[in-house]
Amino acid sequence: MSRLNSNLHRAKKAKDDEFYTQLTDIEKEMRHYKKHFKGKVVYCNCDDPVVSNFFHYFSYNFEHLGLKKLISSCYQDQERDLFTQHKTKKAIWLEYNGDKNGDRIPDAEEIGTHYFKGDGDFRGDESIALLKQADIVVTNPPFSLFREYIAQLVKYKKKFLIVGNQNAITYKETFKLLKANKMWLGVGTNLSMVFKSPYKNTNDKNRDYVSNKGLDPDSHIRIPAITWFTNLPHKKRNKKVVLCKKYYSNKDYPKYDNYGAIEVSKVKDIPMDYEGVMGVPITFMNKYNPKQFEIVTAINGGSKKADMDGNEFYVKENTYLTSIKGKPGYDRIIIKNKKVEK
Predict the structure, then answer these.
(1) In what order do the strands lie in the sheet with 278-280?
(2) Contact 265, 310 (CB under 8 A)
(3) pLDDT attached to residue 210
(4) How far is 83 from 91, CA to CA, in rounded Å?
(5) DSSP string spanning 215-233?
(6) pTM of the model as a whole
(7) What does the CA dihedral 22, 107, 97, 94 come to, rounded to 10 degrees?
């Protein structure tokens, strides 16, 4: 499992996730879902509605997408003024119902500004009341609260398209939904994305990467392994994974010491003719086709006994479920091929 860089670790530890998604990244992903938005109410509930590119995208494409309503809100930290372009410290939410004067531009007088009594936290009663109005939620939720955020969307049975870290695949709460095909990865997966953020970008390579994008490295940060998560259908989800390798022997595909599956260290090396269970990297989820593969469970590189579903196994001393010849491995998704080729 790849590690997050120090910027993301610091934000997670501080429970402070102020990362603003670039408009180009939103546009790249949204072009695959246009048909799902006609006549829908869209809610961006983790976005400063004043500077949010999610609000910008949906307000300027309101008629193009055929939206019914757009709502945007954000948590207002009482110690920091997140709504930097407002003099008030109160949390606000914006509502846009489309163009009224015919210029196809979301003018200020066409956007309704409302004030929360509380802090606008997505878990608060006021935010939940807005969530209940929504058909589809599109946002960049706090990485440190990803589990809670997903649980809320599932509880209220909402369609969604959200930004998260690739490693969220290994969260029990997230994996359960992926396995049950109640959630899947979007078109954009395992990306290095640049976010606008107040955090100081001290890594020279990251600063160069941001500068090469034409952005200010003092106000933007590069975060690796970013993935879109959704329950909206898209064409990539049903794209067949072309398999070229064949299963010959355990030399090519060794078995785990404590778990009855073979190790496939690269997705491109999945054997086309193997009927049993296989351990593949979490990057497999980037290409997962539910018509072609079955997700059985997942095993953690640091787990000695149980898989992701809580099933316990006998494990040899000083080894793990992922161990091969005593050497521990990485997190693995356990799969079976539904379309075995003989």
Answers:
(1) 262-263, 278-280, 332-337, 293-299
(2) no
(3) 93
(4) 8
(5) S-TTTEEEEEEEEEEESS-
(6) 0.89
(7) 60
Pairing between strand 136-139 and 220-230?
A: unpaired
Task: Identify whether the C-beta of residue 130 lies closer than 8 Å to the C-beta of residue 43.
Answer: yes
What pLDDT digit, counting tens, does each position of 181-201 carry? 999 999 999 999 999 988 878
Kindly state the tokens that stand for 288.
Answer: 């997962």
Residue range 120-151, pLDDT digits in tens = 999 999 999 999 999 999 999 999 999 999 99
Confidence label for 48 from pLDDT (cuts 50, 70 and 90): confident
- How many Å apart are CA 123 and CA 271, to the nearest integer? 45
The model's pLDDT over 214-257, given as tens digits with 9 standing for 90+, comes to 999 999 999 999 999 999 999 999 899 999 999 987 678 999 99
Domain 6-235 has CATH 2.40.70: no
**Which helix (H) or strand (E) is 59 found in, with range?**
helix 53-60
Structure tokens at 251: 């030399």
User: What local confidence, expressed as pLDDT, does residue 7 receive?
Assistant: 44
Question: Alpha-carbon distance 44 to 41, whole Å?
Answer: 10
List beta partners, residue 222.
194
Q: In the structure, what pLDDT confidence band is assigned to residue 14 with cuts at 50, 70 and 90? A: very low
Show Cβ contacts of residue 73 under 8 Å, excluding neighbours closer than 6 positions: 43, 44, 45, 47, 49, 91, 92, 93, 94, 116, 120, 122, 127, 130
Q: DSSP state, 280? A: E
Q: State the Cα–Cα distance between residues 57 and 52, nearest whole angstrom.
A: 9
What does residue 220 show for φ and ψ, rounded to 5 degrees?
-135, 145
- For the chain, the structural domain boundaries read 6-235, 239-342
Q: Are 76 and 51 in contact, with CB atoms under 8 Å apart? A: no
Structural contact between residues 79 and 56, judged by C-beta atoms closer than 8 angstroms: no
Pairwise pLDDT comparison (6 vs 295), residue with the higher score: 295
Instruction: Bin 120: left if φ > 0, else alpha if -120 < ψ < 50, else beta.
Output: left
